[in-house]
Amino acid sequence: xxxxxxxxxxxxxxxxxxxxxxxxxxxxxxxxxxxxxxxxxxxxxxxxxxxxxxxxxxxxxxxxxxxxxxxxxxxxxxxxxxxxxxxxxxxxxxxxxxxx
Length: 100
Prior knowledge:
This protein has a four-stranded antiparallel sheet. The protein has a single domain (2-97), classed as Alpha-Beta Plaits, CATH 3.30.70.120. By secondary structure, the protein is α+β, with helices and mostly antiparallel strands. It has four helices and four strands; from the N terminus they run βααββαβα.
């Protein structure tokens, strides 16, 4: 299932990791290992935030994707199931079949 992993890094931990150079290395390594379909980086509510779109085979994969961010940055995480346009097109007829 395609999932959006939202990673929010607290300012103090993010500043420390940025200053000591570990953030760049960690992000590079994580993107290489997790192989997200897309990755976007922004600021949300004043904190560094990343959106990673990954193909998660099973809910038991959540620790594989998330724990690294908890441990590295004391990050807050959200896992949100998402669809692309093709998947939405496939799902809409199923939704309409259930509508009277």
